[in-house]
Amino acid sequence: MEPYTGELAAMATAILWTLSVLAWTSAGKHIGAVAVSFIRLLIAGVFLAVYGQLVRGLALPTDADPLTWLILGLSGFFGFFLADICLFKAFLLIGPRLTLLVQSLVPPMAAILSYVWLGDNLTPRHWLAMLVTVVGVGWVVLEQPDADAQPRPPRQLTWGIVLAVIAAAGQAIGLVLSKQGIGQYDAGAATLIRLLGSMIGYVVLVTLWRRWPAMLAAAHNARAMAVVTFGAVVGPFAGVVMSLIALRHCHAGVVATIISTMPVLILPFVILLYHEKVSLRAVGGAILSILGVALLVL
């Protein structure tokens, strides 16, 4: 295997997920966040099943042993369902700036969990690189206040931060469980198991909220479905497969750190698509995060 396979796969994951965020943000304005989150996984599941049939001769991962199903299913539940639901709600309660800042906790959480659960050690250089990267990302996130910035009631602020922390913990747990469960198993089939694990949570939630009519209505929005389909291909399909390849060859904390650069990677798209101005301070934060990633992979 080529050197830096894990790090390069993590970088590809960050780029693909950045593209998926742009797609889902656009679609979410028309059909809602829950519909986007649920339908994207359904579409990604279809692509993964087709991939399995064409590449492995198995549309479903029936060759996985029960332990692999359990671990990867749980990683999907925590990483795809719990983390995403809490993250979307936190966006509404405290806004994207503060929510994304809390998400900077994912890399150290993943590193600590990986050490405690899997016995993976990090060198002092890795810890320094993670710190530099997280500080750079935080600098970028803090540069621009939320568009709807306004004083929030203490209860709303508290619940928003709690949900953002739960989302960060869910992502960290999902990453570590994925690293444990993937082993030498096919990354595409492993991703499908993760999606199926998350679907349990979504089906229960949509049923309890009585949102099935809304899901059907969203599915009939052709323009939104086209955007969601693109997001599903680059996100839960290609992006998650790349993340599992990264976890197979790299420490979970390093993978989480590289993926956490998404707020930096999105800056060029913000400039090109939305014509937003980016300050020199934000550029400085971006450069700092890039230096941190470089320190991780060198």
Provide a descriptive summary of the structure in words.
- This protein is an all-alpha fold and 298 residues long.
- It has one domain (5-297).
- It is built from 13 helices and no strands.
- It has helices at residues 5-31, 33-56, 66-102, 106-118, 124-143, 154-182, 187-208, 212-219, 222-249, 252-259, 262-265, 267-274, 280-297.
- Helix 2 packs across helix 9 (222-249).
Structural class: mainly alpha
Characterize the largest beta sheet: strand count, sense, and whether it forms a barrel.
Answer: none
Number of domains: 1
Please tell me what the overall shape is. globular
Distance between the ends: 17 Å
Brief synopsis:
Helix content is 83%, strand content 0%. It has 298 residues and is an all-alpha fold.
Q: What tags apply to this protein structure?
A:
298 residues, mainly alpha, 13 helices
Secondary-structure blueprint of this entry?
Blueprint: H1 5-31, H2 33-56, H3 66-102, H4 106-118, H5 124-143, H6 154-182, H7 187-208, H8 212-219, H9 222-249, H10 252-259, H11 262-265, H12 267-274, H13 280-297
Helix pairs in contact: 1-2, 1-9, 1-10, 2-7, 2-8, 2-9, 3-5, 3-6, 3-7, 4-6, 4-10, 5-10, 5-13, 7-9
